[in-house]
Amino acid sequence: MDPLRTEPIQRASAARIAPAAALVGLLLLIAVCSALGQQAAEPQLFSQSAKATLERNFRSPDLSYLLLDGSGKVLAERWATPPDLAQQAVSPGSLVKPFLAIAYGEQHGGRFPTVRCLGTESRCWLPRGHGNLVLEEAIAQSCNAYFLELAAGVDRKRAAQSLSRYGLAGPPITASAESLAGLGSAWQETPLAWARAYLQLVNEQQLPLQSRIVKGMLGSAAHGTARAVDAALGRNAALAKTGTASCSHTPRGAADGFTVVLYPAAQPRLLLLVRVHGVTGAASAKVAGAMLRSLGAGER
Ligand SMILES: [Zn+2]
Q1: Which chain residues have CB less than 5 Å from ligand 1, an ion?
Q2: For residue 82, what are the β-bridge partners?
């Protein structure tokens, strides 16, 4: 009898099918890992080929980027002022929000409010508003109303201590609540500091507070402001966060879009931070997705 035509609950058939299924699964896993596999085996080679690929395919002068491996080592970079590159401090808009959430959570026993966003009248970027939001969805949607409320409930001195554990200087102690929520440009850190702070945050995702923030970043890439990332790399492929900042270039553009992506989501081996002149954070997420895709991320 053909084993494939018997009832699946028969153990004898199941026993014959299982090794075949396991083999298919293994081959699939090898296929998925092959592109990035060389990164683990030959980090130097991966870094060189990543550099060359990004330089060849992403030449726009409007684009700045920083690519790190899972340990925080720089694999490739192009920022405003070579050869110093990522040494110039930037204020990346809503990229600050997860770190405000850390500071707030540590001061409130890990408890977060539900906030009702009414849109424009709540000073949110989405005119019609986000409605009632909990922390995870507020990160995914980058809701200003939610984080303005967190900023109003944070002690600045204690916040500075929380932030310093992530290598962040934080905004000046006199800066407004808006700056703490990523509106305005008072909170500046170097791109490398932002990137490594995100890496540390994600590496702490076994902790209750950090795991909620990482869940928000998974949601951002899946259906939030960074959804262009999963659109490029596949469902639940990455963790991401976007930011829309006022433009720091001359001549001035409407905005500078920032996106940070950690790939793959479960155990990130790559972190990509991009800034794209003249676009929103959501639009810069599309560029970040395409860049990671060009490095072999998301292939199956
Ligand atoms: Zn909102």
Answers
A1: 117, 124, 130, 143, 145
A2: none
